[in-house]
Design a protein that fits this description.
Largest sheet: none
CATH architecture: Up-down Bundle
Oligomer: single chain
Strand content: under 5%
Shape: globular
Protein name: MFS transporter
Keywords: Membrane, Transmembrane, Transmembrane helix
Number of strands: 0
Organism: Comamonas jiangduensis
Distance between the termini: 37 Å
Number of domains: 1
Length: about 400
């Protein structure tokens, strides 16, 4: 692609990210609260959020298959169309007090979520120079900064729009955002899979996933995203349980999502200067620090402060891990490796979001924040060992 075409594609992906990225804050901030109202028990409260994450994880492989055969744009358009249907179904589930219908709506939204998550890989496809990949990823993910405002504000503006069915208006709003995204995606042009640069024969997937480069990048992505989703899902319920309002919980999620994407303005530059491994490690350390902030108390400052630090940590950890992943595959292997990585990442996110409600109810807020620290430490050890091996190999090379 020419520089002008690349820039246009990145701009469209940025807008699509802003609109599509607003859906998860809506589902996550309201899914547990609606689940508490409609489900038969507190342990099922986060099932709608978990099914969204599960739908996202299960959609990564078929979405990648469709992208390979029908192109990214056509797959993204299909995802937006399904998101419109999903928002209407979820709203109808609330209106009729039908828990499983609401869950069906959030689960269907998972396919759209898988498409939105792959926008970062589409950014890589739109840029010819490998040295610019991290910057392209960051540029598109800056759209999440707008999503951080759009999603939670939509919740605040529309949660009581239909007085007899609280929260239903927010899911109609989610469908409306998907309509806008559909119009943007119809204008997107990306290189078709058949003409994308290819270097060397594709290795078997089993051989790739056993390489240290893939293992470390995938582990960093799993822990960064999994822990973020775990705590982000539990926090609104914990806040409401401590006497804070739904609006305060939604604003907490908004600050969190702002912190998730605001660093994207400079994360690519930081990676270019300090390296993917270093920025990923810093992100994991910040995620651990967020747990420490949450353990300091139960005031609004502690909840919001933990969410903000968690968001920044996710940004460094996840963008760094995504950039690290691009080193683990050849261009001819990218589709299957990207899909496998996202399946692992969002499969863990689904488990984390489902487990958060149960653990919050049984173990408590402090326990779930303390329990994440060993996982962070383990991945930091993996990253450190991998970096040491790379430096040693560079030293002994002629």
């Amino acid at each position: 692609m020419t520089a002008t075409a690349s820039s246009r594609s990145l701009n469209l992906l940025f807008v699509a990210q802003a609109l599509g990225g607003a859906a998860p804050p809506i589902i996550i901030s309201l899914g547990g609260l609606v689940g508490q109202q409609l489900s038969s028990g507190p342990t099922l409260a986060t099932l709608p959020v978990s099914l969204y994450q599960l739908g996202l994880a299960l959609s990564t492989l078929p979405a990648a298959w469709l992208m390979q055969r029908q192109g990214r744009r056509n797959t993204y358009v299909l995802g937006a169309m399904l998101a419109i249907v999903a928002g209407v179904i979820a709203a109808q589930g609330i209106a009729h007090g039908h828990f499983m219908l609401f869950c069906l709506g959030t689960a269907l939204a998972g396919f759209y979520g898988a498409c939105v998550q792959s926008y970062r890989f589409a950014a890589v496809d739109a840029v010819a120079e490998p040295a610019l990949h991290a910057r392209a990823i960051s540029r598109v993910m800056v759209g999440g900064l707008l999503a951080a405002v759009i999603g939670p504000q939509l919740v605040i503006w529309t949660r009581d729009a239909l007085p007899l069915t609280p929260f239903a208006g927010s899911f109609y709003g989610q469908a409306a955002l998907a309509c806008l995204a559909l119009l943007v995606l119809l204008r997107l042009r990306l290189p078709p899979a058949s003409t994308t640069r290819v270097s060397g024969p594709a290795r078997p997937l089993g051989a790739i996933v056993r390489t240290p480069a893939f293992i470390v990048a995938c582990a960093a992505g799993v822990v960064s995203y999994g822990l973020m989703a775990f705590l982000m899902t539990a926090t609104p319920m914990a806040m409401v349980g401590c006497g804070f309002s739904v609006g305060e919980a939604a604003l907490g999620v908004q600050w969190h999502v702002l912190a998730m994407f605001a660093p994207s303005f400079f994360t690519g530059s930081l990676i270019a200067r300090w390296g993917k491994t270093t920025i990923t490690a810093i992100g994991l350390v910040l995620i651990a620090i967020s747990g420490g902030v949450a353990l300091m108390g139960l005031e609004l400052l502690h909840f919001w402060g933990a969410l903000i630090v968690l968001g920044i940590g996710w940004n460094f950890g996840f963008i760094g891990a995504t950039a690290m992943l691009t080193d683990s595959y050849r261009p001819s292997e990218r589709a299957k490796v990207q899909a496998t990585n996202d399946f692992c990442v969002f499969g863990s996110v689904a488990l984390a979001s489902f487990g958060s409600g149960h653990l919050l109810h049984t173990a408590g807020w402090n326990a779930i924040n303390a329990g994440m620290l060993p996982l962070v430490a383990l991945v930091l050890l993996l990253i450190t060992f991998h970096a040491w091996r790379q430096r040693a190999a560079t030293t002994v090379s002629p």
